[in-house]
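Lab notebook, bench 4. Still working through the backlog of constructs that have no structural model yet. Next entry is a single chain of 272 residues. Request: give me the structure tokens for it.
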Amino acid sequence: MGDTFVLSLGVEESRNGPFYDAVVLGKSIVKKGDFGLPPEPERMGGHIVIPTGQNMFARFMATAPGDGSITIREKQGRTDTPHEIEKIALKVFGTASIGALQELGGNALQLYSAGDYFTCATPSNWYRITDPAGNRKIFGVSAYETGQDDRLSVKMSIEFYPPDNALGYRTADEFIRSQLRKGALRAKSGMPDNVFETTVAGRKARTFERDIFIVGKTATLFFSKKVPLVERFIVVPATAGFYVLEFRTPLNDFAKNDQLFNAIINSFVPLR
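Model written out:
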């Protein structure tokens, strides 16, 4: 996913035809444009001949996991009805292209696969924990910049919650309300104004942020200092269950880490 490719359509005569085009069926592939190149010279009867017309090509991009097809069509005249000359079936797999993984703020990103649940990028030099929820029937990965025991560490977490998860969240709405009740914001009925719609991996999702305060480890009994942190949650629907993307950073480092978080979000590919 994220890769581009080019297909040759045929040699097109600009005046008399034939004329070619390509049509995409499905949402996993997007056509990015057409272009033509002059044909290669040919040797005929001992002479070098440059054919008329141009070789026509179409450029495509794989944008989402799933099945798709590309139909190449031909018509003899500009006003004629095109007919199919070739149909190509394609399958896009949920794996980020190598080109999509980059280095941001000194953090080299590497591809992580959570089995048949999802794939995503994670910082390669962070402390990583697989299935941090243990035996609670929640599956995913958490990563910390400095370590799990550091409550002020920058953190990312992506987890899949099946309907029978042991924490009892049967729906995404239940999860969102439970998180808002942990802060100053509370959900009375419906979704509060601070929960916004977004799109992640082609799916409609919901996101919210909350401010929390944690006492630093070096704080003394009489001079404790609360450090403000920002937590961002993105809840993405699945066929059954839902995904939770969670990010945490000290408020003072929010701008620096926001770009890293967005790169991880853009790399996320749900497989359910």
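Notes after review: The CA atoms of residues 101 and 109 lie 6 Å apart. The chain is about 10% helix and 50% strand. Flag for follow-up if needed.
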